Amino acid sequence: DTEVTQTPKHLVMGMTNKKSLKCEQHMGHRAMYWYKQKAKKPPELMFVYSYEKLSINESVPSRFSPECPNSSLLNLHLHALQPEDSALYLCASNRGIDTGELFFGEGSRLTVL
Amino acid sequence: AQKITQTQPGMFVQEKEAVTLDCTYDTSDPSYGLFWYKQPSSGEMIFLIYQGSYDQQNATEGRYSLNFQKARKSANLVISASQLGDSAMYFCAMREVNTGTASKLTFGTGTRLQVTL
Which residue, B59, B75, B85, B96, is the most exposed by fewest CB within 10 angstroms? Predict the structure, then answer.
């Protein structure tokens, strides 16, 4: 079982909806990540939070809004998405600076109609 | 800029045989880390093995070993005694120099491995 929990596992939304993806880890990690993965493609980094502050934003459109309420939680707020935003959204957390190994959740599969 | 190349879109291997998945990289950083992840159809990215740029020995984790050839900038994954459960997508990834505790991983395009009876 993964130690990074993502909800919901599947989400279908219209282009005018507002929804959120949630991610939770209880491993004491201090960095958390959002990746986007299109079918048959590698994951692409979207955001990185380090010590609950936004550290990296890979020029993601503002219709994606990340939030890190505390060191264990990471949200991705979605608003006015486009069909091309349909993808698997993966959350990950970082154990530390020794290996930089990321622990990933199972992902939230998003479909935008 | 970093670049990771996986030239094998798909590979087949018979159960109990060994298989090598290729990965080459390009970076100007003297310090970097190389990772292999497995992604089954469920979607989760599972960490397999790590090699640091200054590590003298090749990394091993159970049936997984990393054939690290620094001069050739290659970091191939070797899976010994393949099992049906090894069928998945495999991604090679490289870490940029750390900023605090945040690691930015860049992934290759992946290799889909199919283990057959």
Answer: B85
Three-class SS of residue A71?
Answer: coil
Instruction: Give φ, ψ of B41 to 5 degrees.
Output: -65, -20
A2–B contact, CB cutoff 8 A: yes
Between the alpha carbon of residue B45 and those of residues B16, B17, B42, B64, the distances in Å are: 24, 24, 9, 16
**Who has greater pLDDT, A28 or B103?**
A28
pLDDT tens profile A48-65 = 998 899 988 999 999 999
Provide the total of helices (H) and of strands (E) in chain A, helices listed first: 0, 11
In sequence order, what are the beta bridge partners of A10?
Answer: A109
CB contact under 8 A, A92 and B45: yes
Q: Which residues make Cβ contacts (< 8 Å) with residue A14, sequence separation at least 6?
A: A112, A113
